[in-house]
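Dear colleagues,

As part of the handover before I leave the project, I'm documenting each prediction I ran so the next person doesn't have to rerun anything. This entry is a single chain, and its sequence is reproduced below.
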Amino acid sequence: MTDLRDIAMASKAWPYEEARRLLKRYPQGKPGDAPIIFETGYGPSGLPHIGTFNEVLRTTMVRRAFEELSDTPTNLIAFSDDMDGLRKVPDNLPNQSMLAEHLGKPLSRIPDPFGTHESFAHHNNARLREFLDRFGFEYEFLSSTIEYASGRFDETLIKVLRHYQDIMDIMLPTLGKERQATYSPVLPVSQKSGIVLQVPVTVVDADAGLVSFDDEGERITQSILGGQAKLQWKVDWAMRWVALGVDYEMSGKDLIDSVTQSSKITRALGARPPEGFNYEMFLDEKGEKISKSKGNGLTLDQWLTYGTDESLAFYIFREPRKAKALHMGVIPRAVDEYFQFRSNYATQELDKQLGNPVHHIHRAKPEPVPQGTPPVTFGLLLNLVGVMGADATEEQVWGYLGNYVDDARPEAQPDLAKLVPLALAYNRDFIAPTLKRRKPEGSEIAALEKLDGELIALAPDASAEDIQNIVYTIGNEGGFENLRDWFKALYETLLGSSAGPRMGSFIALYGIENSRKLIAEALA
């Protein structure tokens, strides 16, 4: 442990850098041996997407890194802001008209458009927890609705009223004139309509938690305690930091201003803002920011239909301060790169292991880093099923794998067994509809005929390397300006795509006779 801590204290991996900042927060340890509190926030106004999962995963990685550096206990709170009023109906949900009838009401008091849970928020909270549990996260789930109603926030809410003017002085300069006229840190819940009201309030009695406001033409005096009000977003965030004693919370780059204002409010309430950093946003394939309301991001379901859990974690871990595209096209590469880093891990020195993404991926789960890699890459597997067509079955795929893999059975190849159904799904939905083989032209014809002749002479169990050498030789002697043109011709005439695998590996996997049939079809 000492060696690990010494090396981790110098590691440049971003989770360790963040963990060291937390160590500096309490040089003498947290008072009373209290746990370090990590928090992630989630607004359940739309289906959980990868941006939501991302925050929990990255925060967990920092938490685990901190635990490697310190014996101080920790706790992770996954907080759902399900008392927030629904401001807009997301485009990707059913029963749009029903949801529109409940605009302004707390998410936890709006019927579930899917008809499976007590409310819209309950549905989305359940979906989020399902995915967090699937990955093995350790966390305490808190619902805004429950915490407000239970009175857990009451003491801090009273502080908000006592420092009402201080908070207004912080917030008003950040708002336009029109918004300044109606802004209130406190959002009372109407006893008439059930709507979270965006109206000015007057503090009547801070110690008693009483405010007054206009509701449908009537002046109302009402307590803000026990769930009868919630706070405006930036004030709410600060209130949670104070009430829950949060020490660390990261957030997206789009919330830099919110972090600044919430930190000022936290100090006004007599507490210290948490540590954290601002990560860059995920972008869709058009380069636009992913939004729950637009529904232009990937859901967790979608990624896990076509890629492994570990590939998702790998993609999220890398370069958190760099904007990254997040769409279906990034999944195959993430799957293979995860296994590449995993294959390196066992032979690396400890300092290199601590910088390897798989160390943080599997510490987050938590579990030891698995050994070994699949005998076939996901990319090569996609090429195989692409040639087999959209109706290929797992049994057929394993039949072809027998040409290339010793003991090609799911029981003997567990990693490969996970990839086969994912490859079939990805091919069915994204590859097969786009494949279109073209006819060979000019020198390509003679080169394909030459390749066919060379394959005839090969033994059925010829190695991928031997086949690759033949492909190289034909390309070098075939009159192509460069080998890239030859490989592109192979991909376009045999596979129907503009890019592809090492042809030696593909032919060995697909089988020499089957590959000769592809050549014959191209020449015909």
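The domain at 2-168+233-279 is CATH 3.40.50.620 (Rossmann fold). The first helix runs from residue 2 to 8.

All the best with the project,
I.
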